[in-house]
Amino acid sequence: MNLGFTGIRQVVIGIVGLLLGAILTIGLIFIDRPNIYIPLVLLNVALLVLVILKQYLFDNRFLMITIYVLLGATFLNNAFFSINLGFFSLFPYRILLIIVGFLIVFNLIRSDFRKDLWTKWTDLRVKGSLLFFVFWLYYALLTLLWAKSVTEGIKYISILVMGIFLIFIVTLFLNDLKKVLNFYYIWVIMSVFVMLIGYWNAFTKNHLPSSSLHLGPEYKQHYPTSVFTNQNDFATFLSISLFFFLSLIRNGKNKYWKAGGIVLSLAALHLIMLTGSRASQLAVIAGIGFYVFLLCKSVVRKWIVALGAVGTSLFVLLFYNKLWSTFSSLFLSPTIHDFSGRLPSNTGRANLIRNAFNFSLDSFGMGVGAGNTEYYMENYSIHDTDQVVNVHFWFLEIFTNFGIFVVLGYIILYGYLMIKLFQHYNRGLTNQYRLITESILVALAAFVLSSISPSSVSNLFFHWVLFAFAIVALNILRKRKNNEKVVVSPTHNPLIEGE
Q: From the centroid of its chain, how far is CA 390?
């Protein structure tokens, strides 16, 4: 094989670079600086892999396979492999995200790739949704100007950058029905794997090292945590995945897929009950109710809405005194804490909410700064939270960290995605489009309630995957609608025109 002078020079430069990197790494190992030499080892390994896989770097299929593997890795968190670099930790999802970013940047030297990427961008029907995340990121950087803890702010922004980058990658490259269906099947397959680990937790009372229950108190060992930190995070994931399985029952391509959907749905419900997460259980009830509403005819939906409004009004009127006394005791009364025991769960959560609103008001609605809610909760709490510093409510966490503009934008985008997906669903869809649209639409509805359960959602990567899924689904539905438009020309009569 004749490489030519240029090819030989590139190989020599690559080998020299690897040798220098290896020498530097070995030197740092001897002076015991793991935070420096571990990234250098990884860099050298990456360079070696690039030399070996050089022929694939410019192959679009290799890039797509890497993106699919990245999506699968988001469901594993840091459960099986993690390198702690002090300020930052690396695990498969983050490593693959870096690799995908590198592949995209590396391929930009190709004019055909640049043109294809520009075509993908111009062909998007969801640019406004993506631009909100750009605004969110810029605002997060701006909040560092007044954040009390810049370190916590930078950590939080790094998570935000990775989540937003994932959304952009998915939206740009998964731009047709076949690729989105692959996305859906990845979610289902990885959910099965995660659920199997959950059953292993429940039956053996063993947990992965990444779990907070690993070597924890005996009375909590029966709670399944799977690849997550705790059972509440796992329950939130299950409350979303359940509706991917239910959609499979309705829209699976054959009886085997439908039977699989039934088995997985029952297993997900069982595991949610085992976690004991009340918020996720309520989310499942609300999600199933919304699913039934979705499947009803338009006339029946109107009756359901009317009856729901009347029933809610009657409930408030009948139990007004009880509701008000509960609300005032949780949110308006001073906290009385018997320090011989822990605060009641409801009181603790109510105090977290009260503190969060106090911090937001003190910041004049601008937010306390990216990642600073926990710092404020630990150092400036007015109401006793029993040393708990996480807000335990995703929407309120966004409001406290980033203020009124970002949380309103997030809520508006969230509602917009649901409304638009609902409108497309109402117009009638083929089986494959229904499979995707139903699962995402109901999962988004359930997540509103289940997001109360985890201590924080920012580092639950499946949340970013769900948002990416919703945006890319809306994109392909709009493209489908555009492609199905038929321009009807005036009736053409050859006899009249003298032909």
A: 18
Task: Indicate left, alpha or beta for 211 from its phi (over 0: left) and psi (-120 to 50: alpha).
Answer: beta
> Alpha helix locations (H) across 319-453?
320-331, 345-362, 373-379, 394-426, 431-450
pTM of the model as a whole: 0.83
Strand runs (DSSP E) across 59-196, as ranges? 83-84, 89-90
Identify residue 271 by its one-letter amino acid code.
Answer: L
DSSP state of 393: -
User: Which phi and psi (to 5°) does residue 432 adopt?
Assistant: -70, -40
Alpha helices in 174-297 (DSSP H): 177-204, 231-251, 255-275, 278-295
Question: CA-to-CA distance for 325 and 413, rounded, in angstroms?
Answer: 34
Contacts of residue 119, defined as CB under 8 A and 6 or more positions apart, other chains included, come to none
Q: Is 56 exposed, middle or buried (0-12, 13-18, 19+ CB in 10 A)?
A: middle
pLDDT per residue as tens digits for the range 286-344:
999 999 999 888 888 888 888 888 888 888 888 777 777 766 766 666 665 555 556 66
Extract the tokens encoding 432. 């494959």
**Which pLDDT band, with edges at 50, 70 and 90, does 144 fall under?**
very high
Q: Compute the C-alpha angle 392/414/150, nearest 5°.
A: 50
- Whose tokens are 């930052």? That residue is 88
Give the closest residue to 148 by CA, choosing from 458, 400, 455: 400
Q: Which of 446, 463, 453, 344 is nearest to 391 (CA)?
A: 453
Strands 83-84 and 89-90 turn out to be antiparallel
